[in-house]
Design a protein that fits this description.
3 helices; 60s Ribosomal Protein L30, Chain: A
Length: about 350
């Protein structure tokens, strides 16, 4: 019941950010940073193999923790195809509540902290809504689990022990309209530690130690993520095709056509060849600007097609930059289902209309 209430509260906190974030966006592209934190629900931890004065005794005891909090920060890179990787550091704190042994229990004090890092792989889903991107991920890393003044029945632990750790991530990101590249996040995380660890109590007449293995945390987090990829410049007023060029004997604008599969914006091998040729030709010709215009066919809604055309233009522009064209020389536009290369009615999947035009100026 406590976990469900926490999830509801975090959802309510993130709702205004979701409404503010109704802006056109794409899956993460390029470098980014993120910060987050929230509620940590730690499961009880079993202490077993109790050693007193050098002798082992059977019997398990459970340490019960109060709800705590967690903080995390990450740096990462998105590949503009849904996949991204990140390096994350985290910190978790939970106060001790009590120690249970069978039907008996005793109050406990102090707290446990966890800190360390994860290497995460995450996939963002483009579901056709420019204000919402679900994502899932997993990570592996290392966590130090430290008891800080943990005390029960007059015995105290002040020790840290490390363990291999793993985590699963399920989340939602909400692009925030006024700030290009900034998104709010709401996510659930499950973290587990695997290694057996032995802790030593002090304060008794004889040495006492216990063995722990397995430790699990459930988290509900909110956060912010910022992408460093610069936004596309605003579209200039189009120049009429019949308008004469000011320079004498101008060279005609050269156009390259890059085609896409239906409802896709990833580049085919043939598309990559055409873009590479355009990038190469731009170095040998007197080119000041490369106009990259994205289009779609008439299947789908007008709003969705506008976003798809912008994603196609962004994918081509990113490949041009990778092929050596300065980003400052590229102008990107998305025109949706307008300016059809092959005139059709609505709802027609015409392959030649699913394109990006690269135009030299």
């Amino acid at each position: 019941m406590q976990f469900r209430a926490a999830l509801f509260a975090m959802t309510m906190l993130a709702a205004p950010l979701a409404l503010a974030g109704r802006a056109a966006a794409q899956p993460v592209a390029g470098p980014y940073v993120s910060l987050g934190g929230g509620l940590d629900l730690k499961s009880s931890v079993t202490q077993k193999n109790i050693n007193i004065g050098g002798r082992d005794y059977s019997g398990d005891r459970k340490v019960v923790f109060k709800n705590g909090y967690d903080l995390n920060a990450a740096i990462g890179y998105g590949f503009n195809n849904g996949w991204r990787v990140e390096l994350e550091g985290d910190y978790i704190r939970n106060a001790a509540d009590k120690m249970k042994a069978g039907v008996f229990s005793a109050p406990a004090s102090g707290h446990e902290t966890q800190y360390g890092g994860f290497l995460n792989g995450i996939y963002d889903f483009d579901i056709g809504l420019p204000w919402l991107y679900p994502y899932v991920g997993a990570g592996v890393g290392w966590q130090e689990a430290k008891y800080n003044d943990f005390s029960v029945t007059g015995l105290t632990i002040n020790e840290a022990r490390g363990s291999f750790a793993y985590q699963g991530i399920v989340g939602l990101s909400f692009p925030i309209a006024p700030l290009k590249g900034l998104s709010a996040t709401l996510e659930y995380r499950f973290i587990g530690l695997t290694a057996a660890r032995r802790y030593h109590y002090t304060g008794g007449f004889v040495p006492v130690s216990v063995r722990q293995q397995g430790e699990y945390n459930n988290q509900i987090n909110v956060g912010l993520r910022y992408e460093f990829a610069p936004p596309a410049p605003p579209a200039p007023a189009p120049t009429p095709a019949s308008a004469p060029m000011a320079a004498p004997a101008p060279a005609p604008a050269k156009t390259y056509l890059v085609f896409f599969d239906w409802d896709k914006y990833n580049l085919t091998p043939r598309a990559t060849q055409i873009i590479a040729q355009a990038a190469s030709d731009s170095h040998t010709q007197n080119v000041t600007t490369l106009e990259v215009n994205g289009y779609t066919d008439t299947s789908g809604t007008a709003d969705y097609n506008m976003g798809l055309s912008e994603r196609r233009a962004k994918a081509v522009a990113a490949q041009l930059v990778a092929d050596g064209v300065p980003a400052s020389e590229i102008e990107m536009h998305g025109y949706g289902e307008t300016h059809l290369l092959v005139p059709t009615g609505p709802g027609v999947r015409e392959p030649q209309n699913r394109r990006v035009e690269i135009i030299f100026h």
